[in-house]
Design goal:
By secondary structure, this protein is mostly helical. It contains 3 helices and 2 strands.
Length: 117
């Protein structure tokens, strides 16, 4: 709790308070100087969000064309997006990219093995 003593000149006023001139404030009104407000819609926030959607685009696009290349690009951009704070976009990109790369590798391996046997 924060206690504030009133100045001595308040004693001369005629008011109906107790003789104890200490006021008590709640913690939410505690005066501090270390509060910094940031704009959540800054340019860096928007650029990281766009990068997350680009990673998701590459990962989803890798399901249809060049799965290893676009999948790896989506995975790398997804990891970068997770480190910058957009975990849902990043993990979704990583998941789709990994799925695409693993399925394409196993599909090609199955195709090669079926041609040999």
């Amino acid at each position: 709790m924060y206690r504030h003593k009133k100045n001595q000149h308040h004693k001369h006023h005629n008011h109906k308070l107790s003789n104890d001139h200490e006021e008590e404030y709640g913690a939410e009104f505690y005066p501090t100087n270390d509060i910094y407000y940031t704009d959540s819609k800054s340019n860096s926030y928007i650029s990281r969000l766009v990068l997350g959607y680009v990673a998701l685009f590459f990962s989803l696009f890798s399901l249809f064309l060049m799965p290893v290349v676009f999948g790896l690009i989506g995975i790398v951009l997804g990891i970068y997006t997770v480190t910058k704070g957009h975990s849902t976009l990043g993990y979704t990109s990583i998941g789709f990219g990994l799925f695409s790369v693993i399925v394409s590798i196993f599909y090609n391996l199955l195709f090669v093995l079926s041609a040999i046997l």
